[in-house]
Design a protein that fits this description.
single chain, Beta-Lactamase, 408 residues, 3 domains
């Protein structure tokens, strides 16, 4: 905004400079034919047509009667600044060396210094128009007509230029108001400009900042801003405020203040603190939600991953337990053995080892069974031998033999 204002202000300065330069050139252009006319009158003296006194009288009459522009005129003085030709009769013939304008400036002293030291040049002063009472800004042009030691000058009022500058400045302020109305960084942010007495110079289009000058908090804020303004066009100061800017309740906010020194303006941007912190709160909430989502995804992924790893390990553990109690089934490891990773390799190895153990156990049981049969036959033979060797068995055998012999 400072850059925008600088550009618009420069355009006003350029307009004023161009307009003033045009007025100065117009004064020079008016003076050129006057000098030519004086030279012609003086030439009549050389030709013997007029005496010097007659020629000067005719020249002064001519100078007094010249009008141009907005009833602007010429004035003529001798080197002592006695008025030789002035349209206003009250000055005619008087020594006006101490004549001052409305601001106390010694007008004729400045004119004489310029004419005698430079030959010609410009001065600025304030003077009252013919028939008026209020002084206005004026540019004076003076030259030294050396053949007769006359100081001849004229001037043109430039207050109309300042009026046009004021109009342009008002247009610039309206443009700034429109621009301020289009710029927003929160819903209730605002830009405005204060002058050096605390008046609101520019208000954003569509905004009402009357509370700044009508409420105690607004007045206190303006007083504070004027008491410690930002210094320098490039300086931006951030400060807190507590006031009602656009009506309603008093709000806390943050404002930045910078100055535009050529116009003695304070450029102020303001926004409620709640609106400035809202994005950070929203960002924090979004980050929290994102963290929760990431946590859920991570836990879910970890659970799935752990289940993918733990289930095969559990099947291997179960197979080990079943192997110990004799209920091992190699098919229980088929799913884990189908994996292509280290867990699958472990499952395949364990399944193969289990199958080998079962096979060895089967073969061992067969061997034990065969050995048991052999052992049992041996025991029977031994028992029979022990029985037959007893005395009782021998007596029984003898009696049995007796009975067979009798019956035979």
């Amino acid at each position: 905004m400072n850059s925008l204002i600088s550009a618009e202000y420069q355009s006003i300065l350029d307009f004023r400079s161009t307009a003033l330069e045009g007025r100065r050139q117009a004064l020079v252009d008016v003076s050129k034919p006057v000098i030519a006319s004086l030279d012609e009158v003086r030439a009549s003296v050389d030709r013997g047509e007029l005496t010097t006194s007659e020629a000067q009288t005719a020249a002064l009459t001519m100078l007094k009667s010249i009008r141009f522009g907005n009833n602007d005129y010429l004035f003529t003085y001798d080197e002592n600044m006695t008025a030789l030709a002035r349209p206003d009769p009250k000055f005619q013939g008087r020594d006006l060396i101490d004549l001052q304008d409305a601001d106390g400036r010694y007008i004729l002293r400045d004119l004489r210094d310029v004419a005698l030291s430079q030959g010609s040049g410009f001065t600025e002063y304030r003077w009252v128009r013919l028939g008026e009472t209020v002084p206005a800004d004026k540019i004076g042009y003076v030259f030294n007509y050396e053949p007769w030691d006359w100081i001849i000058g004229t001037g043109v009022y430039v207050d109309n230029i300042e009026a046009e500058v004021s109009v342009k400045r008002g247009a610039v302020e309206n443009q700034l108001a429109e621009a301020f109305g289009l710029v927003s960084f929160t819903s209730n942010s605002t830009f405005f400009i204060l002058d050096d007495v605390g008046d609101v110079v520019v208000t954003p289009a569509g905004s009402d900042l009357s509370a700044l000058t009508s409420t105690p908090s607004g007045k206190a804020l303006i007083t504070s801003l004027l008491a410690s303004p930002a210094t320098g066009n490039a300086s931006i100061v951030e400060r807190s405020y507590e006031a009602s800017l656009q009506g309603g309740s008093i709000e806390e906010g943050v404002m930045t203040v910078s100055s535009f020194d050529p116009l003695k303006w304070l450029l102020v941007s303001a926004a409620p603190r709640s609106e400035l912190t809202a994005p950070s709160r929203q960002l924090a909430l979004q980050q929290a939600l994102l963290s929760i989502i990431v946590l859920i995804i991570g836990l879910s992924g970890g659970l799935l991953l752990s289940r993918r790893i733990v289930r095969p390990v559990e099947s291997i553990t179960g197979a080990a337990l079943s192997l110990s109690d004799g209920t091992f089934d190699p098919a229980s490891l088929d799913a884990a053995a189908a994996r292509k990773d280290e867990v699958g390799e472990l499952a395949r190895t364990f399944r193969r080892m289990g199958q080998e153990i079962i096979e060895r156990e089967r073969k061992l049981l067969e061997q034990v069974a065969r050995l048991t049969v052999v052992v049992d036959h041996g025991k029977v033979a031994k028992s029979v031998e022990e029985i037959t060797e007893t005395e009782y068995f021998h007596r029984l055998k003898e009696r049995a033999d007796e009975l067979r012999s009798r019956n035979g």
